[in-house]
Structures are given as structure tokens and as C-alpha cells.
# Entry
Amino acid sequence: MSQPCDLNCRVAAPGRLDEELQEFWVGSPWEIMMKHNLSCFERNRTYLNVAGQDFVDVSYLSGADNDGDSRSAIAVDFRNQGQLDLVVRQVGGGPLVIYENHFPPRHYLKVSLRGTRSNRLGLGSRLVATVGDRQIVREMYPVNSYRSQNPLLAHFGLDQAERVDQLLIRWPSGHEQRFQDLSGDRHILIEEGSDAITTVNPGVP
# Structure
């Protein structure tokens, strides 16, 4: 690609292009989008976190190693079972792909926030869950990837623990709240400044 990024720029290719290798030359990056598909059909990779110590490549075993040149992925509890599934959009063509999580079920807690002094959705809040000798930290941001956005909630994987010993919430307003001995395996809603905890039931207002 020639430089600068000028639609009127016309610079000759620096040498003979190998069309068998699908080489091409354009005068500006805009021509790439108009005339060419840059999907190289790279195979996707999936890595399994092993107790925070290492990562194992499970691409083939998971079935996620297709060549759809995926650019966006969100983790969402699609089946409302406390297990995060993966929704993937492929640039190289094909439909949305949903990879269901079939690992052995473990305990979890999902938390949504409603701000009063802070913004309505609690954006920017920091949540710290203490589970035994572990601390799990989540920040309330809708994580984005290419043309996609995760649901705005904090998901805590509790492994074998059935409860959260303490949940600390630091709101953007500076207000702090602490909740003790929260039972897991549910989705809860917490309002800033209130001690009440509402259990969220999908489909029920």
C-alpha cells in the first residue's frame, strides 16, 4: 500500500506481483475495502487457563479452530446456567457461532448494579468478592470487541464455593457498600445506598 493515505495518490507497484499468492497493490487503504477481501481465513485459537498458572491450547478439542477469521467474541451466559458461553462473529463469512460451555458446572454469582448518586448503570464501579482465601475483582464496564459488547454485569466464578463471604462495591461516587455471606448460583441486583438485594429472574419484571 502506498503512502500517504491519499485517494489521489497513484504510486506504481515496487515490483512484479505474484498473483498466485494473491498479492495486490493499491494506492490507498480505501481501495482495499472496495476491491479486496483481506480475510486470510486464519484459524481461531482457544486457550484454557490452568489455575492462573498457565494456558493450554484447546482450539481443536473445543471445535473453535474454524477458519472464519473471527473478529468479535463476547462471553455471555446464554442459557442462564451460570456458565459463560462464547458468541463469535466471523468476518470471513458464515453466521454467528455460539460455543456452548460444557465444562462441569460450578457455582457462580452474577451482579447487576443500579446507581443513584453514581450513573444509573454503575459504570466504573469496582466489585471485590472474597471467597475463602481468594479475592475476585471485577470492574463494571461493558467490555467491547469488534462490533460487539458484553452484557453489563459482573460474573463471579466461585468454583466449589456455594457462597461469597463478602462483596465490596466501590461506586464511582466514592460510596462503598459491603454485603456479607451472599448465597451463590443466582443473579442479584444491588442499588447504590440500599441494603436490599433483589434476585433477578429472567422474563419476570
About this structure: The chain has three domains: 1-36, 47-99, 107-199.
